[in-house]
Amino acid sequence: MNRPAEPLGAKPTHHQAPPRPQPRAADDDWVLSPPSQAQPPQAPQPPQAPRGWTAHVGPDRDYFMAMMRRSGPEAAGLNLPAYAPPKQVPLQGNQVSIGRRRHSTGESPDIDLAVPPEDPGVSHQHAVLVQQPDGSWAVVDQNSTNGTTVNGGEEPIQPYVPVQLQDGDRVHVGAWTTITVRRG
Predict the structure, then answer these.
(1) For the chain, how are helix, strand and coil distributed in percent, rounded to 5?
(2) pTM reported for the whole predicted model
(3) Which residue from 16, 37, 47, 164 has the highest number of Cβ atoms inside 10 Å of its Cβ?
């Protein structure tokens, strides 16, 4: 049966047998001959979306009790809030500010701890979460009055020095607030 001629560069309409392995003369390795026709193009895979980070913000009884043991008599009037709804804040952009709203100027941080129950130990510009080049986050204390600690540490972190955070790390600010950073 005669078939019409195929134009140059067109895919052949007949089937070819797959290439057969041929032994190399020098050793026992096998080499496959290159395919005689181009492989069908693969569909591009969509890029994996980076998993986002979230800050889980709320009062922390253990942190509050530790702060009370370390504080002087001025802390005697502080009470842990009986109820505070948990807050989740997506970490977006290059920086996420932590502090209390300034009522005089209306300036409000990304994580505003002036909303009830207001944490009186938090400075207006307390700390900043800073995204790192690899997509992770670090915390930087902004020379706050009461300092910032990480993961229950006794000593506050040094002001203006980024401290790398891992998934699940706890950032403590003010009298009772803990911000837990979560990935995904």
Answers:
(1) 5, 25, 65
(2) 0.71
(3) 164
